[in-house]
Amino acid sequence: MAFWQRLREDLTCVFDRDPAARTVFEILTAYPGIHAVLFHRVHHLLWNLGLKWLARFLSAITRWLTGIEIHPGAKIGRRFFIDHGMGVVIGETAEIGDDCTLYQGVTLGGTSWQKGKRHPTIGNNVVIGAGAKVLGPIMVHDGARIGSNSVVVKEVPAEATVVGVPGRIVTWENDQEHQMLQEIARKLGFDAYGTTQDMPDPEAYAINRMLDHIHLLGNKLDELCRALRAAGINPGDLCIPALDRCQIHSVSAENGRQPAVVADRQRN
After folding, report:
1. What is the per-residue pLDDT across 170-200, written as a single tens digit (0 to 9) for each?
2. Could you give the CA distance from residue 128 to residue 240 in angstroms, rounded to a whole number?
3. Residue 161 neighbours by CB distance under 10 Å
């Protein structure tokens, strides 16, 4: 009975997370992610029974058929969905919670040749975007989002969003912005690639902070020069280019969409 319940859950989660899914027959016959997960459950059972060579042999056949490599020793929770799937690699000591989603090219890999725990542990309701690499015996806590092509080698807090190489946690300018973007995520219900066009760009944010710092230093320098002139000391002329306007656009702007971060500030 438990097998049929798990199968029903695995099929239902596909309908919930992939709008292209139309029928149960289509999912069972044309979704390699489902094939890989169903076969893995059998392989994992064989692995736990001590039939390790048979489990590895059957998992190698599954990899050849689906393009998805899941070590039979990996622990996978309920309602796990691999979308597209080609190139996904899940290592032996990886652990994945319930209601998680992985996209193509994701690697849950190790960073050591030592035996023991060397692959990541993924909490519940985690989305890992296409091409992302989560490496080492780290913990990705519940509700985290890892953006496409990110490389994560450190622990990810619950509900955090990580982007970039190496992975950086997206921070918000203020609580109001955070709440607004959380509401957007709630309305979307599911972030297909672990990120949205409304998410702030951490690199643009860092550059803007540096520009603000330079601007304040420039003002202080002007005040110092005025004070020196008032004291009868000529500091000379400083040939410093003015920061009149700075615009930082995300790549999405090239596609005609609203940029993730646009810094358009008048400098006095």
Report:
1. 765 555 655 655 555 554 444 555 555 555 5
2. 45
3. 27
pTM over 0.90: no
List the domains of the chain with CATH numbers.
2-188 (2.160.10.10), 202-266 (no CATH)
What's the CA angle centered on 186, arms 207 and 132, to 5 degrees? 55
pLDDT tens string 11-67: 888 888 888 888 888 888 888 999 999 999 999 999 999 999 999 999 999 999 999
CB of 120 within 8 A of CB of 140? yes
Dihedrals φ, ψ of 112, to 5°?
-140, 150
DSSP 120-184: -EE-SS-EE-TT-EEESS-EE-TT-EE-TT-EE-S-B-TT-EEETTTTEE---SSHHHHHHHHHH
